Amino acid sequence: MTDQLADHHWGVEFPALAEELSAIRARLDAWLVREGLGEDDRYDLLLAVNEAASNAIEHAYGQGGRGTVHIEAEARPDGAIRVTVTDHGAWRVPRPALSTRGRGLLLMRENVDEVLVDRQPDGTTVTLVLAPSRRSSGATALPPPPAAPPQPPPEPVVVTSRDGWVEVTVLGDVPSHAAPAIRRRILTAARGGTVPVVVDLRALGSRNEGLIRGLRAVAEAAAAAGNRLVVRAPEDGHARRALVAAGVDQVIDMVPHG
C-alpha cells in the first residue's frame, strides 16, 4: 500500500478492512497539513472520509468480504478540497440504511460542504467537498488579528419536534458567513433530510444571504431522501424575494403561513 502523490493530489488503495483506517487517516492528515489545512478543517474532513470508508468496508463487501477501497484527494485551484472514496462491491444494507436516510450520510453532511453519492452495479463512489471558504490557515500561518474575532452563529434558531416532522424557526439576521452553521443546524434537526422539515422565515431579518445559501443545500438533501423542503415566507416579504432571486423557490415548497 503506497501513497499516490502528485502536485496537490493524494491517493491510496487499501484492503477493505476496518483495521486499515487508522493508518489511512494519519497519512491523509499528513497530506492535508502539507496543503495548508488547519486543525479544525482537517478534523471535519477526516471524520467524513472515515465514515465514507467505513461504510464501504461494511456495506460493499460485508463481513469477511474481500475487496479494496480507493481514496483520492485533490486540492483544487479554487481552494476547495475534494475527496472521493470508491469501492467495487454491491451494497447489502437494508434500504433505510443504504440510502441517504442513514446516519452516516448525516454525519458526512454535518462535517463537509457537499456530499455526492454515485451508486452503480459495479461499485459506489462518495464525493466529499470542503469549500474554500471553510479552509483555515495551517500551523505556520500568522494568527488572525485580535480585533476581528469570528462572529458566533446566528441565534436563535428554534427547533421544535412535531408529530413526524420538524419545525425550524429562524429569528433575526443570517449573514453570508453564517451559511455553514445554519445549514448544519437545519440538517441536524432534519437528520440529513430524512425527516420532513418546515422552515419558518416569517421573522427572518433583512440580512439573509447566509440562510438562502444554506436552504439550497438542505433542499437538495431532502430531495435525495425523497422529501420536499417546506418554507414559510410571507408573500411580500424580503425572505420570499431573496428565495426567488436566488432560484431557491424552484427546489422548495413556499407557503405564506400555516
Automatic annotation (TrEMBL):
Question: Can the keyword Nucleotide-binding be found in this entry's annotation?
Answer: yes
Cited InterPro entries: Anti-sigma-factor_SerPK, HATPase_C_sf, HATPase_dom, STAS_dom, STAS_dom_sf
A GO term, aspect molecular function: ATP binding
SUPFAM superfamilies associated with the record: ATPase domain of HSP90 chaperone/DNA topoisomerase II/histidine kinase, SpoIIaa-like
Query: Which key words are in the record?
Result: ATP-binding, Kinase, Nucleotide-binding, Serine/threonine-protein kinase, Transferase
Identify the stretch(es) annotated as Disordered. Answer: 132-156
Q: Give residue spans, biased composition: Pro residues.
A: 142-156
Looking up Pfam families in the UniProt record yields: HATPase_c_2
The record places domain STAS at 155-258
- The protein's name is ATP-binding protein
- In its UniProt entry, the species of origin is given as Saccharothrix hoggarensis
